[in-house]
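WARN  no MSA supplied for this record, continuing single-sequence
INFO  ligand: heme C
INFO  echoing inputs
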Amino acid sequence: MRLPTILTSAALAGAALGGAAAAEGNAKNGEAIYDRYCAACHGAEATGEGPMQAVLTVPPTDLTALSAGNDGVFPTGRVVKRIDGRDPLVAHGSPMPVYGDFFEGDDASLKTESGQPIVTSTPVRDLIAYLEGLQVR
Ligand code: HEC
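INFO  complex generated
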């Protein structure tokens, strides 16, 4: 169990060594994770039109419009919590799978849109970097 407010020494060391690039995540790696674990529902273009769409009772979200739906600001905090399952909405019956345990691994911190740091794992941070680059503003 990881507490969001605790920055591990690994995350701090990573930030010190890698600088801004490390904190921003690797979008290329994020794309590979997306294609493998998210595209089935959210679609290859992330617009919500994956092959699994037909069997879902709730349509998958268009992940290219996250910023557009949030006054032009990418909702980093919300998206991290949706993916790692900290968002209680997910725990209560959303068809969206909870990847918390699956994406456990190296802790990584990133900044939310309000400037607050949030701790998650490296795969989630990379996914965020990829998704952020897909936004139609
Ligand atoms: C089994 C199908 C399925 C898979 C696989 C899936 N999702 Fe989803 N996702 C959904 C559905 C359905 C919704 C809309 C309902 C909801 O918000 O709970 C959703 C919602 C979301 C949201 C919420 C958007 C918002 O407005 O807050 C995010 C972010 C998201 N998915 C990201 C991902 C990522 C990243 C992956 C891969 C790691 C992924 N999803 C894999 C079905 C899926």
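Residues 1-22 have pLDDT under 50 and may be disordered.
INFO  checksum written, moving to next record
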